[in-house]
Amino acid sequence: MKTLVIGSTGQLGSACVEIFRSAGHDVVSLSHADVEVADPQSVRRVFEHSRPDAVINCAAYVRVNDAEDHAEDAFRVNAMGARHVALACAVFNTLCVYVSTDYVFDGALNRPYTEEDVCRPLNVYGTSKLAGEYFVRQCSPRWLIARVASLFGKAGSRGKGGNFVDAIVTKARAGQPIRIVSDIRMSPTYALDAARAMEHIVNRGATGLFHLTNGGDCTWFEFARRILEIADFDTIPEAISSLEYPTKARRPRNSSLQSTKLSPEVRVLLRPWEDALAAYLLETSRAR
């Protein structure tokens, strides 16, 4: 299978390149320098040249706070970019895989969100990603939407300047105080695990909407505390309220995800987040 990965330098994009290639796909890796999803002609040229069987669209405007003041930029990439890719997939009979987010939900539920729950985004970023989902459903005959959340991966996040795990480890090494919000829940997800689950689904010809996150959920404070424990730091983080850490974009109080649609084989690939975190910290420590 010839698989195009758009946004191949990001956390999930780079993980998809690694996992899909190791699974035997003929992977074409495209960074922002190679294709501009906001430009339909740029997208069309890439499709004409590569003629892919599947496209994994990881390209995204991910600066959540900046999106509040730059909504046009966010929608240009997350919504119209998704539309351009989906339309090209329709022309070339290509499976369109669009990566979305937990921020399509408002956080009002006191349980994890499933694929059946109604979306009500609170911020521009989440709204732009939901618009992208709608365009993919509308424009591409064969589509797969994969919602991920709170990613950490070896490539970091180009748009955000790193990931949460690495930031906590860096602060602990520097002896800096660590104050983390304790009233926002989410589902930490190792990019490699999400990519493995995605490849499994794509390889079996599945279509539709899936939540691809590691098992379980926690608050950001609980996540930070576990990072420090596994990395063997004596640092004790301080739990704070999100009211003490105001942000321009509203965040859902609970954006944890779980899936009601995944097969047992895929669920095994999405291990508990604590196990995924331990694996990530071990792998990154070996790389240093």
Helix/strand order: EHEHEHHEHEEHEEEHEEHEHH
Helix proportion: 40-55%
CATH superfamily of the domain at 2-158 and 189-215 and 257-270: NAD(P)-binding Rossmann-like Domain
Adjacency order of strands in the biggest sheet: 2-1-3-4-5-10
Oligomer: single chain
CATH architecture of the domain at 2-158 and 189-215 and 257-270: 3-Layer(aba) Sandwich
Low-confidence stretches: none
CA radius of gyration is 18 Å
The CATH topology of the domain at 2-158 and 189-215 and 257-270 is: Rossmann fold
The structure class reads alpha/beta
Tally of separate helices:
10
- Biggest pleated sheet: 6 strands, parallel
Mean pLDDT: 94
**Number of extended strands:** 12
**Beta-strand proportion:** 15-25%
Distance between termini?
34 Å
Q: Please give the CATH class of the domain at 2-158 and 189-215 and 257-270.
A: Alpha Beta
* Shape annotation: globular
Write out key terms for the chains shown:
288 residues, alpha/beta, Rossmann fold, 16% strand
Describe this protein's structure:
With 288 residues, the chain is of the alpha/beta class. It has a domain at 2-158 and 189-215 and 257-270: 3-Layer(aba) Sandwich (Rossmann fold), CATH 3.40.50.720. Helices cover 42% and strands 16% of the residues. Helix 4 packs parallel to helix 5 (124-139). The protein is globular, with a radius of gyration of 18 Å.
